[in-house]
């Protein structure tokens, strides 16, 4: 089946069918939908309709859909489930990582209730374990379900044991090889398993070159490793090297995506993770911080202008926007380049090298911009003094902004603050203000 | 092995060893390195040293490393390989997608030479096929290597055939089920294969719910589907439904990453895909377009200021930076939200709904900003007329910029232009200019 986008007409039709209480027709209609699409449908229906539909779904399917829901929608939809219902209808049908995810969003007293209502004590213990790991660590996003074999087994026994283990694991991405103390030694490839004699011992054919993380590795580092080494799955070990779980690529894709969106929003001046669909209040709240910082910059700029007493040279006013905008633009460009190379871990130059290069780039762009502006101001019939002032100010502003835009994210990074903050308000606003200051200082010297 | 970042001291030591021509010691030192790390090492050595090291690597390992190299470094390193050497030492050791990738970067005459020098005619045909697909389509990034079974086979025969096919395939992510005409019917899970009696026919146990793309699907759509449905691998079919190849998650991670970086660079005013490490010339070239557009805006702003004859109200100059910056900031915020929801395919509102909401957000933020500025200007002892002018201008500018910032990317998207362009120069600069125009128009009315 090719997946089509869930268009509004399908949502409307299903909504009508639900109104006329033809729930069976709805179930027939969505039978071929993937869980992700049912989740999207629920998110777009009224809450009451969504609840009715979710209740009508077969238990296992409902659980799959619940995993894919938006966190907020999920909270509303699950509100009326008792702890026991949650445990037996939802959690028991899920992998440990998804189960832990959903449970961690519940209120404290309900978490306890759910864990107590689970019928399988192993599952309850595994989930409780996962809930203990600190947020943003490998432990907090790993799953316990995996297929492992002992290095001393023959391949025949592996196949037999894997058959048993695979019952519990949805998708087998890797077969881990451990020693008698459960310490991770390597992986056994499916290819080797299929193409080697079944009498061969595992120890002769497994791959020892394995990339692993510990339970306390930061999720962004996990994402970096999986991306760099193109891994579908990465094993997680404790500090004794024992195999604790595994993280699959889809969880890491989510981390990467969140990271990229955060940087993008930072660069566009949004202070919180918002989307178009959020409320007017949430959107305004995310926008105001940058606007207010920008306005603070504007107020300081106004003080700079007043300080130099613009009424003496009113013709200077015309080029203030140009100077301020150019300073801001150059600063953001420099900062973005640094943020990107820090994120890609490709920052191999020394800070001095980097600054010297930025000086070069600054000078090249500054000379192009300044000579152009000199010609333009002359063509507009501006006085020679003003043309010279604008051009010299431009060179100084561009060179300064280029180096400042580089230094700020590097400094933030040194103090373990997310350098992407620099591409937001701080660099632009500071460069606006300092740009004007430079402009007027040059003017004072020349005019 | 835990992977450590390749630090400068390791690079320096290896560089020294290469100088003293202890190539064997270098080979021993990097024996445990993953291909990705060897590639990074080569990128950080001098070209001559890198060449020497690459030549010294065993053939299969060299091929793995070459795949991981930066495009430009790869071009320099491969320059001296003849077509025949490339074919027999590099290409023959690679999967079809990587092979096609590397060949497509070569000069036209060399492509021909390489294809002719391949010993396996099947491989040559497969690569030539892949080279035919248009850039940015699923066909252009898929690989031909896959494991497939016929729906009419029993599982026992599957295992036997898979053993044979697996010889050619590095990692088995999925087992595809096809009919006698090679049309894709579904997938057989490893779990089913391991846990079902070997006498069962494939047709009874395979999964018919399969997400697939056609050879001409755009890579960004492929990425969207794989991310949405958490797929490790996605099959590619032709328009008759025949199985042509498969795309793995790592290729799509690259697409996602490029996409995210492009949007980020667009939002930060960089016109081309550059990194910190590029040359001063390349960096200047990527920066100048936005700077020049910004300067054009600055020149137009200067005309607006001249047109309203600022020397009549020189005190207005002080708040020009504030008005211009706020307009630009609001516009970018709006545009970024639209770009993001278009990219996430979560844009479900009608344009009218969206604009009404933006009007709401604009009004809320505008009222907060304007009342604050009214208080600040009053506190600074500015004349009442000027305070009122600044506040009214702010409200108008913010509301206008919010709606304009929304409309521009939506319009670009309608005309199939990447809406992310809007977060770059166009919206900021236009809002700067229009902001000043509004400011002076309000002043004309009031003062």
Could you please describe the fold and organization of this structure?
The structure is a homodimer of 447-residue chains. Helix content of chain A is 64%, strand content 6%. Chain A has 447 residues and is mainly α. Chain A folds into 3 domains: 8-137, MgtE N-terminal domain-like (MgtE N-terminal fold); 147-250, Roll (CBS-domain), CATH 3.10.580; 280-446, SLC41 divalent cation transporters, integral membrane domain (Tetracycline Repressor, domain 2), CATH 1.10.357. Chain A has a 3-stranded mixed beta sheet with strand order 1-2-3. In chain A, strands 4-5-6 form a 3-stranded mixed beta sheet. In chain A, helix 12 links the parallel strand 1 (147-150) and strand 2 (175-178). Chain A starts with 7 loop residues before the first helix and ends with a helix.
State Rg of chain A: 30 Å
Average pLDDT for all residues of chain A: 87
Number of beta strands of chain A: 6
Indicate the low-confidence ranges of chain A by residue numbers.
none
Helix percent of chain A reads 55-70%
Write a concise keyword list for the protein shown above.
homodimer; mainly alpha; 3-stranded mixed beta sheet; CBS-domain; 3 domains; MgtE N-terminal fold; 447 residues; globular; Tetracycline Repressor, domain 2
Q: What's the arrangement of secondary structure elements?
A:
2 copies of one chain form a homodimer.
Chain A: H1 8-19, H2 23-29, H3 35-44, H4 47-56, H5 59-68, H6 71-78, H7 83-90, H8 96-104, H9 108-117, H10 121-132, H11 138-141, E1 147-150, H12 155-166, E2 175-178, E3 184-188, H13 190-195, H14 202-205, E4 213-214, H15 219-228, E5 233-237, E6 243-248, H16 249-267, H17 280-307, H18 320-343, H19 351-379, H20 384-414, H21 425-446
Membrane topology (chains A, B): Multi-pass membrane protein
Pfam family, one (chains A, B): MgtE
Subunit structure (chains A, B): Homodimer.
């Amino acid at each position: 089946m090719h997946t089509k986008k869930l268009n509004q007409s399908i949502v409307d039709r299903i909504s009508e069918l639900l109104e006329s209480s033809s729930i069976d027709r709805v179930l027939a209609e969505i039978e071929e939908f993937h869980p992700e699409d049912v989740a999207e449908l629920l998110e777009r229906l009224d809450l009451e309709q969504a609840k009715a539909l979710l209740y009508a779904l077969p238990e296992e399917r409902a659980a799959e859909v619940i995993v894919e829901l938006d966190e907020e929608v999920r909270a509303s939809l699950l509100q009326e489930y008792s702890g026991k219902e949650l445990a037996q209808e939802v959690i028991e049908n899920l992998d440990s990582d998804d189960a832990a995810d959903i449970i961690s969003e519940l209120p404290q007293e309900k978490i306890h209730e759910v864990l107590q209502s689970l019928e399988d004590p192993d599952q309850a213990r595994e989930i409780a374990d996962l809930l203990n790991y600190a947020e943003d660590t490998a432990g907090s996003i790993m799953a316990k379900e995996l297929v492992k074999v002992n290095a001393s087994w023959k391949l025949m026994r592996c196949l037999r044991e894997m058959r048993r283990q695979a019952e519990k694991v949805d998708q087998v991405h890797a077969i881990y090889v451990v020693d008698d103390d459960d310490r991770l030694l390597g992986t056994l490839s499916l290819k080797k398993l299929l193409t080697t004699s079944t009498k061969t011992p595992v120890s002769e054919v497994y791959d020892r070159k394995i990339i692993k993380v510990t339970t306390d590795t930061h999720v962004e580092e996990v994402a970096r490793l999986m991306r760099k080494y193109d891994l579908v799955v990465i094993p997680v070990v404790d500090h004794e090297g024992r195999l604790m779980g595994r993280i699959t690529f889809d969880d890491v894709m989510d981390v990467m995506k969140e990271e990229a969106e955060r940087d993008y929003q930072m660069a566009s001046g949004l202070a919180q993770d918002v989307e178009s669909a959020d409320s007017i209040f949430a959107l305004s709240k995310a926008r105001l911080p940058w606007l207010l910082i920008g306005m603070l910059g504007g107020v300081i700029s106004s003080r700079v202008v007043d300080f130099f007493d613009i009424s003496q040279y009113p013709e200077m006013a015309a080029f203030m926007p140009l100077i301020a905008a150019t300073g801001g633009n150059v600063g953001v460009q420099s900062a973005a380049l640094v943020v990107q190379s820090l994120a890609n871990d490709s920052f191999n130059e020394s800070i001095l090298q980097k600054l010297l290069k930025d000086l070069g780039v600054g000078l090249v762009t500054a000379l192009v911009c300044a000579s152009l502006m000199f010609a333009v101001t002359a063509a507009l019939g501006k006085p020679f003094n003003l043309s010279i002032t604008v051009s010299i100010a431009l060179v100084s502003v561009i060179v300064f902004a280029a180096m400042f835009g580089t230094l700020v994210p590097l400094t933030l990074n040194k103090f373990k603050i997310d350098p992407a903050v620099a591409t937001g308000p701080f660099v632009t606003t500071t460069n606006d203000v300092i740009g004007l200051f430079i402009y007027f200082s040059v003017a004072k010297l020349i005019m």
